[in-house]
């Protein structure tokens, strides 16, 4: 299953590295990544593949949110379908 | 990959602009549960609702988490109980067993304690209508509706006269809760069979076994989009609303398809609705004010609402395979912070609301009136709404609350999504002779379309 991960938080050194390590820990494969700074806020969007992830989707959501807090960012994962539906005809 | 701006836009809509799917409503046929033995009918109804809708809340919560969009309400609508209960006459027993099932499933409302009497009433329907005050006041989650008029058949004024009495009785029986019973009872002209919204949802006879109908929402999203085009002309305003409605509806379509598949049901329709909540920033009134009215209720309100209602439909139709239900902008007073404010300030009157119902999705909704308003006056208000619906070929409805012991200036609070309503003045003109005549107001000439 493909999903969209969004990472929002105050910019600091090493966010991408930290988030990538968390993803690796759960068997989440990063397919595409885009990142920008909006004012001082770090905004990263990743397209990920969950085929190798052993966790249930809601468990993964809870774990990512929790681990995001430890590095000071908001991590959320959502099914890709909502974005596809709303922005593509 | 989808572009960053689109993804952030969706997230912002959910986080800051109250975008949600208002309801997924499982529409169930109970026709096979009719039985001349009242207890057997109760068992059949209970078993069927538990079997088909038992997982509804779980499915809703799972979809909401996966997709990242709130699904506010999970609900069930059923075949009119006036029909299912007719062989046994055990109408109230069925209401109570449905209430029990609703409680166990964990849904907030179950609709379908309903009757369709828009042309005439059978004896068993008369018996059924007489049970509405008891059934609604003695259950928590059951919603009731009665269709008393249609463009094809005219207005059944005998039924209209009865509705005023039922509403007064309901108000009296639920007086301790601010006449909450009246918030769960709605009178329709041109009722629709696939409406997912309460209190008027029921499963029509043309519907299938189990169908998921979805009601979308999102006044806050439309308001946010319009704030960005200050000074633009109204053609542009309509265009912005259409584009926004498209996106909102797509979310509803997606949720409906997934929910239907998980529940083993058919996907029915998306109801293209802007349904407000009492939350700040989730108001239809606010949209009209952003268009340039200093308050909803002033001159220009009807025109602004007509534009909004039309643009919502045009944007939504493109986004969904099947559109139905009530589709349009809702204008419930107690459930919309902007409407409440305008009534409190004396800027929105019942007459203006009546005019607005000619161009909105439904009708006079969640309006509190003084407790001493007579049954005949309430029936006369219903008759006016029916006339607007019948002549304009649209659904209209009345959900009115004569709050016992309250008068103009007081305010009744229901809490939650039902919000709070300032008591509005009604005309003191006596219409009782007109109402007591009974009979049928014949269907308009344009009903003869064949």
Topology diagram in text:
The complex is a heterodimer of chains A (89) and B (450).
Chain A: E1 2-10, H1 15-25, E2 29-38, E3 41-49, H2 57-70, E4 73-79, H3 81-87
Chain B: H1 4-16, E1 21-28, H2 38-53, H3 56-67, E2 71-78, H4 81-84, H5 91-105, E3 110-116, H6 123-137, E4 142-150, E5 154-156, H7 157-173, E6 185-189, E7 210-216, H8 219-227, H9 234-263, E8 266-271, E9 273-274, H10 284-290, H11 301-319, E10 328-329, H12 337-344, H13 350-356, E11 364-370, H14 375-392, E12 396-403, E13 411-413, E14 420-422, H15 432-436, E15 440-441
Parallel strand pairs in B: 1-2, 2-3, 3-4, 4-6, 7-8, 9-10, 11-12
Antiparallel strand pairs in B: 1-7, 4-5, 5-15, 6-12, 13-14
Helix pairs in contact in B: 2-5, 3-9, 5-6, 6-7, 7-14, 8-9, 8-10, 9-11
Describe this structure in words.
The complex is a heterodimer of chains A (89) and B (450). By secondary structure, chain A is an alpha+beta fold. Chain A has one domain (2-87): ACT domain (Alpha-Beta Plaits, 2-Layer Sandwich). Chain A is built from three helices and four strands; from the N terminus they run βαββαβα. Chain A has a four-stranded antiparallel β-sheet with strand order 2-3-1-4, with helices on both faces. Chain A is globular and about 30 Å long. Chain B is α/β, with parallel strands linked by helices. Chain B has helices at 4-16, 38-53, 56-67, 81-84, 91-105, 123-137, 157-173, 219-227, 234-263, 284-290, 301-319, 337-344, 350-356, 375-392, 432-436, and strands at 21-28, 71-78, 110-116, 142-150, 154-156, 185-189, 210-216, 266-271, 273-274, 328-329, 364-370, 396-403, 411-413, 420-422, 440-441.
